[in-house]
Structure formats: structure tokens, C-alpha cells
Design brief:
mainly alpha, 4 helices, elongated
Length: 109
Amino acid sequence: MLKFYTNDTTILATFEDFITTVFVIIDDLYRCYAPPEVAKRRHALDTKLSDSKIITVSLCGELAGIDSENAWYSFSEHMKELCKERNSLYEKQNDLKGQKQKIEKSLER
């Protein structure tokens, strides 16, 4: 039986944070409660995704209303594109900060 000793609350700002949190919990539970014959089965180390990741993807997909593999694939491709856009925005922001610092240094002289 699981016992939670504190009432800590964490606010999850994004779906990515939610997925990460769910994965950590599932992975911990899997390591504690999966029978050895399942966790250490033949070819388990050769798989592309761990059992914990598969359970996480399935659970998060169901909670998000994604009911098929094709829909999950489309969603994940959309998330990849959003991440690329966000990263390029961060890079542009960092470039602007660098340019601002150069200008400020040249004005100080």
C-alpha cells in the first residue's frame, strides 16, 4: 500500500511537466512492484521504450483524450514543432541579450 507522508502540492505549468511527473511516479512504482520475471524478461534491455515509458504514454494519452496511436503520433509531432519554435525563440532572445550587452559595454567606454 502506498503511503504519502506529506501534503506537498506542485503546480504543473505544462503538459510536458505533467508527463515528466507521471513518468517519475510510474517508474518508481514499476521498479518497486513489477515482478522480477516481468522486469527482467528476455530482451527487455533491447527494447526502444521501457515498460515505464509505455505505461506513461498510454496513461497520459488516455487522460488527454488521445485514443489511438495515430492521434498520439500526430500530437507528439505537433509538440516537437512547438518545442522547436520555442527553442528558436529562446535562441533569438539570447542573441538579443548578447547584442544588448555589447551595446551597453560600448556605451560605457
